[in-house]
Amino acid sequence: MDSFLSEFEEANSAELRWLREVYQFVEDTLCPVTGQNTGYSAGQLALAVVKRVQRAAGTESALLPLAYRLISVSELVTRQHTLCCSHLTWTTNEYREWIKEADGRPSNHKALPLAYLLLIGCLTDEGSIESGGTCGGTWKVMDGSGSVPCEVLNPSPEWRGQLMLFPSWNYIPQHASGQGQKAEGYLELSASPLPLVPSPTAFDPGGSPSNLMGVREAAKLLRLRERRGGVRLHVCGQVCTVGPLLDIGVNSFFCFCLREGDSSVPVLVTDPGCLCWQQCVHVAMFVCLSGLRLHRLRGWLGHRVLCTTPQSRLQLLEEPLATLLTCEEVLGTTGKIVSETQGQQEAAMDSQTEPGTQTITSLPQTLPTVKTKISKMISYKGVVSSVLSSEAGLYEIDGKVGLCLAYHPLQRGGHALRPGAEIELHDVHFLYRPSPHAPPTVLCVCLRSSVRVVAFSRLDTGVTSRPTRDSPAHRLLLERNLGISQYLWLCHCLSALRERLCPRWVREEHVGAVARRLLSCLVPPGQEGSGPRELYKEMLEEPHCCPLTEYCVGRPSCELLSVRDLRSWMERECWDSMSLHSLLPPSAPHLTRAELNPCLPGLSTSCLPTLCPDPRGFVENSTAGQQLLQGETSDSQTGSLWIRHRATEQVLVGVLQPSGRGPCLRLQDQTGAVDCVVVETGHAHSYCAAYNTAWLGCLVCVQHYTLVMERFLTTDFPAWTHLDQERYITHRHSRVYIQFCLDDVLVLSLSSAMAKLRGASERGKSREGEGQKGKSAPDSSADGPGGCGEGIGGSEGPGHARREGEVDDGERPGQSVDRSHMQAIEEPVLSSLTANGSRPGLGKRRAKQEEDWRENYFKKARKDDKGDDLEPKTHTEIQGSTGSGERDTHKPPLNDPGQLKVTASDPCVSVVFRVESKEGLAFRNVQVSGDDPGLSLSFGVSAALLGGVQGWRQDPQNCPLEQRETVEGEAWDDRVELQFVGHCVRWYPFLQLGTAYRIVAPHTEDPGVLRGSSAPMQGGSAPGGVRPQGAPSLLVQPRWRLHTLPLPQENQHLEQKVMSVSEVLYSSTAPSLVTFEGVVSHRITLLEEKGKTPCVQSELRKKGVDVEQTLNVRLTVQDLASLGQNMQVYIDLSQKPYTPGLVPGAVVLFHTFHRKVSQVNCVYCRSVSLSCVTVTALGQAQSGSEELSTPSPIMHLGEWALDRHVGLGRVRGHVVCVLYLQLRWVCSLCTSVFKQDACTRNYPPCTSTIAVFQAEAKAAIEDSTGEAQVWFSPQTVSGLLALSVTEWEGLQRLVRVRGPLRMYHRGRSVVSDVDAEDSLLQYLSYLCCSAAVCRSVTLTCQRQPRGQSSAAHWHEDAQLKGFTRGDREFMTRIPAPLLLQCTELREWESSL
């Protein structure tokens, strides 16, 4: 050090201190790397460092840059945790100007802070030290303390291995990308490094300029057919394309092309020492290559390329050389015929240097008919504005252009592509609107494209995580050979899944597995849209062709929507798309204020199928928007609007969870939850309510569903003409939910119960197939799995078919579970009582231990039976929100001798029951110990026990029913009343009539916990209102679990018969409390009290439950088999959890409803406190909608008069005469007669100026088989009188001036009580008797019931009349005429 310091005799103390630090740094950090190899001592290297730093800083020889400090690579990586930059050659003013330019760019980032650090190291590549000087394609700065990756703007092969000073650089730290990895960063070398000492070897291009040949001559040589072994070419030309560095197997290579005029030659670089050229050569650069040989590619038949050798060298030129040789001159001077041995060696070299994999194959493609576009190849230069996803290779340029690097493997994970970096792209594909999840313009790079950073970012973009080279998006891209549209959609799905499922339900590392399942469901194999890939053709062949040349637009056509976005869009759309005119019946213009507002539903529904518009750009209900609608159906009677949109399909991904506070399930993700009305396929292949508890906890993809928006309105409109004025809407709110069928659900991750159910189903199918193949006798135990297969596991729906790579982990999606674990159903401890009393295959010692355990168990059970304490034990552990509580891990079967001793025992007891009846969910006075006094949300179930209490070592869950479970236990009644209170009401949606369940009490061996108490619960009651004598009551605990079990067909019966609507209407033996099923055809909200306006108040939350106060609805329920048989059902929905799904078209099971008869002998039903409503088929999406849309049958009047079961039909008949006609204007406020422009009411006086026109008529119709009296509503009177719109409006004006008019039939004419000389009366009398009115018409009519008496008593309603024929008189009974209400009138249709 003294000799080194002697060079600076005039240095002061501060400078000497700085010089000592330099010497110490060189000795500790630089000498271990290059000091001994170059022959320089530490003092010489330190002096070289000082001289180079002084020249770079531009200071005088006597001045030293004391503000700068030397830093090692290890210190930089470990201690520098923020972004920084260092510019040794800049002055303060230059740095300030640089900051102003950086801050002036449109970005939210600030300029990089300046750090006064000096960095010196050896510029090398990734494998230079470890592999003996070979290059891996990634540059690094290395010193004695370590190495750090770096990005270089214009690297040169001469820099490799030299000790250099880096005058300008940026350091970008990065977080560790995963567990077990350390945090590190990388350098951006913005200026060329400065060598400290001369290079020990001079650059040798490998040939003299006299042997160089041009590209045109080299192309001629490649076209020669004869083999030229041993020829080494030296080619000079301009670079036109540069491909990426590819790693395939153990081979690394890249390709670039040289051009001269119209000629080009490809160059294949496979030698490890030449791979660093990939960053050294750029488009439009002139280069000189030496030591090249001819090479024939197996993956590119009929073509040869120039290939590098270990002797190849690269020289960068500023301009092309003038003196070049021709092909003949090269062959004449350097060409020679090699020996056979050398030719074999070069042939062997060809097979070694060429990568072993040149083609990425995919399945044969069967492309559907989709819109495709052809991309264009362009060059582009811009600034990176944002990083959309570094792992997926998605960026944004200039704030408006997208950039996709997924098809271009970057070895450095997109280093230096930070916001603010200037990049240069060549031979990139220009794509226009390839996907809605990307900007309109997207530039996509392929294997022929080149990406070069021409200027590093000056912005402090923050510390980010280091991107992984094997991201889920890239893996799926290569595995499925996806097109650009599908890849962009996949990237959007990955981001959405992370946001909505991680970390609550899915671990970060397992998102890729869920995305793979989702992709395989929505984009089945064979529909990727691109054929087999041939790498060499994509990189070198002209014209260029690759998977990006032709791309599909908008595939797949579905949008992954979050629950939060779905709810917000639906709530907004709920009111934006509301049309009050469409919610009213056709007679709305003729209704008064008291009649109009009740008809305006206090609750209206709007249902949209899966194909709904994108919530980000919904087209409002306007004239322009209607052009985008594929079809629209409006039902003014029900107030429902059903719209089908030609737009993107919306897909929902979430976890099925019980509501816990309502009668339905919920689909939940981390953004929110939405209520679901679900059905599934039952045993008779028909729809039924969801009954399988194994669905709880499943991660599902809902692709086919219906959005339902229920609007609650309170209005006070004076008349029809004021509907466009919102000030008459006094209150409104909405409810949003979805409805779908579980058979259409795609399961992305199974719950433990569902995995076990499907495993049992698969084993049953496999056993059945083996039995048929071997023609063996069927196994008696096959009914268990077989029956299980008839449920969810055995369904043939698309959502239940097992797919390759299915995630079957009960805890987290993405974990693979061994197939043997899925098939391992824990064997119960208490086996069936056999002759030997022990299991076959177990040793005597184990059998003796098990026999002792069984004996002790039965002793304890008998002791508990004799005791007086029969109350169930109270468990303090509360089960989670999922159906299975804490997750059950798959354990080895207990009958495995090798696993029996290591299996942890978790004893439990269970009992199997079948639901006979169920109460509705409501607030009841049921007291539970530990709860606050007051009403509790609860329901009860009356069940039939199929056997006694059984003990298990492990939770059996939903394993097939065993024989011993159906054997009735000792001293055990076959009936029990189950009470579900508080958190236990989460089982309400799955408990269905006639279904068997296994209730499990975990962590106990006491069978008494499942034995009910004979004493009634406080405030409790059994379903049906009367508790069966001797039936015990059992309070279900929160920790207990319920599992659905399949039953044989002979055991599936109900003691209580489910009646039809016709049976309820006409059965003389119907009980007062009935259970029936029908389809909802109409729904309105009722007034709280007669004479008051509807009072639908806002949602109340009582104990966390959503209720609607004073909400009463009337449902018109239609018979499923007999069209036209309707019955009114009144339901009180106030002060109880709201029941969704009661929309027109829904098939509903009404359980325990009170059958009543009105004063006019009309049968209707009303709900009571025990009533239960269950949706068994969805509205407008299932069979119910088909029945509603079925045309009415054509009826003859004679047959219709005898068949009272037909309520709606079409009649073709002749109008005999008009029996009654009334025309008038009434006041909309008080319904008094309105004449001229004022109301005629005087006491008290009415000042209303709003009037409505009302018309009513009755006519006699006959069709030669019978006669009927038909009433006509106001909208059909004009059709009866055969008046045009103008004539009808003129008649209304005359009636308003004249006053009310009423006419009736007498004899053969129509008369009136007023002046017969009135001209208007004479006109109407003539019109009613004219041929224009008395004509043949087709009517759609609804029968008006006279009563519910049987056909045997019809003669009592007949009238005694006399007839005279000649001189004789006859007396006979004439039945009362058939009364009909006309809903539609059409002129005679002969085709009918």
TrEMBL record:
<dbReference type="GO" id="GO:0042162">
    <property type="term" value="F:telomeric DNA binding"/>
</dbReference>
<keyword id="KW-0779">Telomere</keyword>
<feature type="compositionally biased region" description="Gly residues">
    <location>
        <begin position="784"/>
        <end position="797"/>
    </location>
</feature>
<feature type="compositionally biased region" description="Basic and acidic residues">
    <location>
        <begin position="848"/>
        <end position="876"/>
    </location>
</feature>
<dbReference type="GO" id="GO:0010833">
    <property type="term" value="P:telomere maintenance via telomere lengthening"/>
</dbReference>
<feature type="compositionally biased region" description="Basic and acidic residues">
    <location>
        <begin position="759"/>
        <end position="773"/>
    </location>
</feature>
<dbReference type="GO" id="GO:1990879">
    <property type="term" value="C:CST complex"/>
</dbReference>
<comment type="similarity">
    <text>Belongs to the CTC1 family.</text>
</comment>
<dbReference type="Pfam" id="PF15489">
    <property type="entry name" value="CTC1"/>
</dbReference>
<dbReference type="InterPro" id="IPR029156">
    <property type="entry name" value="CTC1"/>
</dbReference>
<keyword id="KW-0238">DNA-binding</keyword>
<keyword id="KW-0158">Chromosome</keyword>
<keyword id="KW-0539">Nucleus</keyword>
<dbReference type="GO" id="GO:0045740">
    <property type="term" value="P:positive regulation of DNA replication"/>
</dbReference>
<feature type="region of interest" description="Disordered">
    <location>
        <begin position="758"/>
        <end position="902"/>
    </location>
</feature>
<dbReference type="GO" id="GO:0003697">
    <property type="term" value="F:single-stranded DNA binding"/>
</dbReference>
<dbReference type="InterPro" id="IPR042617">
    <property type="entry name" value="CTC1-like"/>
</dbReference>
<protein>
    <recommendedName>
        <fullName>CST complex subunit CTC1</fullName>
    </recommendedName>
</protein>
